[in-house]
Design a protein that fits this description.
The complex is a heterodimer of chains A (351) and B (319).
Chain A: H1 25-29, E1 47-48, H2 68-81, E2 86-88, H3 93-110, E3 115-120, E4 123-128, E5 133-138, H4 149-154, E6 160-167, E7 170-177, H5 186-189, H6 194-197, H7 209-218, E8 226-235, H8 246-249, H9 261-264, E9 265-276, E10 283-293, H10 294-298, H11 301-313, H12 316-321, H13 328-336
Antiparallel strand pairs in A: 1-8, 2-7, 3-4, 4-5, 6-7, 6-10, 8-9, 9-10
Helix pairs in contact in A: 11-13
Chain B: E1 7-16, E2 21-27, E3 41-49, E4 52-59, E5 70-75, H1 83-90, E6 96-99, E7 103-104, E8 115-120, H2 125-137, E9 141-147, H3 156-163, E10 167-171, H4 180-185, E11 192-197, H5 199-211, E12 219-223, E13 233-237, E14 242-246, H6 252-258, E15 277-287, H7 295-300, E16 303-304, E17 310-317
Parallel strand pairs in B: 8-9, 8-11, 9-10, 11-12, 13-17
Antiparallel strand pairs in B: 1-2, 1-6, 2-5, 3-4, 3-6, 3-7, 13-14, 15-16, 15-17
The chains are: A alpha+beta (351), B alpha/beta (319).
């Protein structure tokens, strides 16, 4: 067993009950703020997922931040209650190994002080210091791991993971680990194709967004992973806003007041990326969640001004679909105090 | 995909398989393994042939589970644009080349309880990788392989060792033919059919499959037609504000790339649709050679696939 590294910069915090989640100031500034203009509408906003600027969520292909260990603890709690949050149809095991390889090699290359992977043919040795895990196993032999390959590695990786099989010119949601989702369910969507699982999204179908997005995704190849940002808003920093647990978080949507909005309402950002997996030819679709409280936003004046303008101009169908109706006006009133009306600079990064 | 991150490789071996086919082995100069891939994948090989830069796709025929090297098997085509001749004549062990990462437009359906594979001639190459993959992952398959004669049938010994009685060979010169009616009417439910070979073979197999009511989702085929040579012609690229002359032995896509204009592509064989480009005006005629546009789209004359198709005269493209 590797020694759990207590001196590592990972926060001890919760995403439920007492909600002790907090961002450090550096973590706020490195967040992938999703608005590059003062208004928002759906677009096929895909771009190549390349190593990006230092001190941002785009610096490394797979981002690890101060919330890593606590998020993995929350995932384990969700899985204890509901093992169906991780599923893999029988033909997807090879894609599970591809996923394990991608996440292990990427993390070991980006964060050598925290993760290490040694490989001698199929004899692999993995060390995850933040979580105190050391594992020797045979690549391709699931009996040498405590879980299947997909579950094993995604219990050690922030964000949800959908694994999409490609057949008949379409993508099929045939495996995944989904515990930090914005109100959708893997158990409901498993086996669906790209158009089926996007059926509930308003407006985008009429814009032809999904046909273009699918064409783009099918062209994603090993050398050119892609990414896009999506967003919604969540009351309390709750990772598991699933339909299965709606009874726990749904009522909280009416709890926002002018007094608590700054610290209780969060912009929920999804950094979605798309990777062609080598042996299975499947697409790995990680959805990584970042929370910024309304107060966090005000520490970056460009972001609070822009968030204010986006919320003010958002089409009503979109606001309803994203579940913002109960608190949108309260958030607009709060953020108005941080918007001096001046033009914002280009792009989404802080000034 | 457009001009993707290429991989620099060295040719480590060239093996003459028979009078027409040579196998080329590529490895990283530093000895590190190449990226893993799935059976049915192709790579695009970049060839600097004098002033021409060709980019030609070839299926990987080696095992996806052994990426110390990649192997492609290339049949010499004396009537082609010259890519295979360049490989056969100019490429030897030690040659440095650049290849694309693997991409798969002919993947196995991994749900299938049984895979029925039909190969014609050099169309055997993707099945070499797929049968190697299935041998390790444990999928049931049967391969029917049509060759001109046994001496021109690449990989017969290797396949026989790998597949035993599940390999069926048909010698064209001996008058042997696949009995498609019998084959396609006797498969267990759930079987997936894969065919790779000359276009007439693919069309014959698909017609029989339709006759025997195979579901379209169970049919997989790969045309390995290469861009044909032809008369030179002129392309005007409106958005890039360039005029490009396409040589007789150059594809339109290669000519566009040579002019420094990045254009998307994936298969470079007229099958995947990635390079589809709008035709804005035309003096002359479009010579479609792809498998992507349907009859109606061809008749409309508003789109062309520059990876394989050509023109007579002058064409203005949106790119």
């Amino acid at each position: 067993m590797a020694t759990p590294a207590t001196a590592l910069p990972f926060r001890d915090e919760t995403f439920r009950d007492d909600f002790t989640f907090r961002n450090s100031p550096q973590t706020v500034r490195r967040a992938p703020f999703p608005f590059d203009k003062d208004s928002y509408m759906y677009a096929v906003n895909m771009e190549l997922h390349r190593d990006g600027r230092p001190d941002t969520a785009f610096e490394h292909p797979i981002d690890v931040d101060e919330h890593y260990v606590a998020e993995m603890r929350d995932r384990a709690l969700v899985l204890d209650e509901d093992p169906l949050r991780c599923q893999s149809l029988p033909h997807m095991e090879l894609a599970g190994w591809d996923t394990l390889e991608l996440l292990m090699t990427s993390k070991a290359a980006s964060y050598p002080e925290w993760f290490s992977l040694s490989r001698d043919g199929n004899a692999w040795h993995w060390i995850n210091r933040p979580m105190g895990i050391e594992q020797r196993f045979t690549f391709g032999d699931a009996t040498t791991l405590p879980y299947g390959p997909l579950e094993y590695i995604t219990r050690q990786a922030q964000g949800d993971f959908c694994v999409l099989d490609e057949r008949q010119g379409n993508l099929w949601m045939d495996a995944g680990m989904v515990t930090t989702q914005a109100d959708w369910s893997l158990d409901f969507d498993i086996g669906m194709n790209f158009f089926e699982w996007h059926a509930p999204v308003p407006l985008a179908h009429e814009l032809g967004i999904f046909e273009r997005a699918l064409k783009y995704l099918l062209a994603v190849q090993q050398a050119n992973p892609a990414r896009r940002l999506n967003w919604t808003m969540t009351v309390n920093p709750r990772l598991d806003t699933s339909p299965e647990n709606y009874h726990r978080w749904g009522p909280e949507n009416t709890h926002i007041t002018a007094e608590n909005v700054a610290d209780k309402l969060f912009l929920r950002i999804e950094l979605q990326s798309f990777w062609r997996l080598p042996r299975s030819n499947a697409i790995l679709f990680p959805i990584r969640c970042y929370f910024l409280s309304m107060r966090d936003l005000t520490t970056v004046p460009k972001w609070s001004a822009r968030m204010h303008r986006v919320l003010r101009s958002l089409p009503p169908e979109l606001a309803t679909y994203k579940g913002l109706d109960n608190f949108r006006d309260i958030a607009i009133d709060y953020l108005a105090g941080f918007d001096d009306g001046r033009a914002t600079s280009e792009g989404a990064f802080p000034d | 995909m457009s001009l993707h991150a290429g991989i620099d490789v060295e040719v480590t071996d060239v093996v003459e398989l028979n009078a027409l086919v040579k196998r080329f082995h590529f490895a990283r100069p530093d000895g590190q393994p190449l990226p893993a891939f799935s059976g049915g994948s192709h790579i695009v090989i970049e060839m600097q042939d004098g002033t021409l830069r060709r980019r030609t796709p070839y299926s990987l025929s080696s095992s996806p589970f052994d990426t110390r090297d990649y192997q492609v098997s290339i049949r010499r085509d004396d009537q082609g644009r010259g890519g295979s001749l360049y490989m056969h004549r100019g490429v030897v062990a030690g040659t440095r080349m650049r290849i694309s990462p693997p991409a798969n437009l002919f993947p196995l359906d991994q749900r299938a309880p049984r895979h029925l594979m039909l190969a014609g001639g050099i169309g055997i190459t993707p099945f070499m990788a797929q049968t190697a993959q299935l041998a390790l992952t444990g999928g049931e398959c049967e391969l029917h392989y049509g060759v001109r004669n046994r001496s021109l049938g690449a990989y017969l010994d290797e396949l026989s060792a790998r597949l035993g009685p599940r390999l069926h060979v048909y010698e064209d010169e001996a008058g042997e033919r696949m009995d498609l009616d019998r084959l396609l009417s006797s498969q267990p439910t759930g079987t997936h059919l894969y065919v790779c070979g000359p276009t007439p073979m693919i069309e014959a197999v698909l017609a029989k499959a339709a006759k025997h009511a195979w579901p379209a989702a169970h049919l997989h085929y790969e045309h390995f037609a290469k861009a044909p040579p032809g008369e030179p012609f002129t392309v005007r690229l409106q958005a890039s504000d360039r005029t490009v002359e396409v040589g007789a032995e150059q594809s339109m896509l290669e000519a566009i790339e040579a002019a420094g204009v990045e254009a998307p592509y994936l298969c470079r064989g007229g099958a995947c649709g990635q390079c589809e480009t709008r035709v804005l005006s035309l003096e002359g005629e479009l010579l479609h050679a792809d498998h992507w546009l349907d009859e109606k789209e061809r008749a409309a004359g508003e789109k062309i696939m520059p990876c394989v198709s050509r023109c007579r005269g002058t064409v203005v493209l949106e790119r």
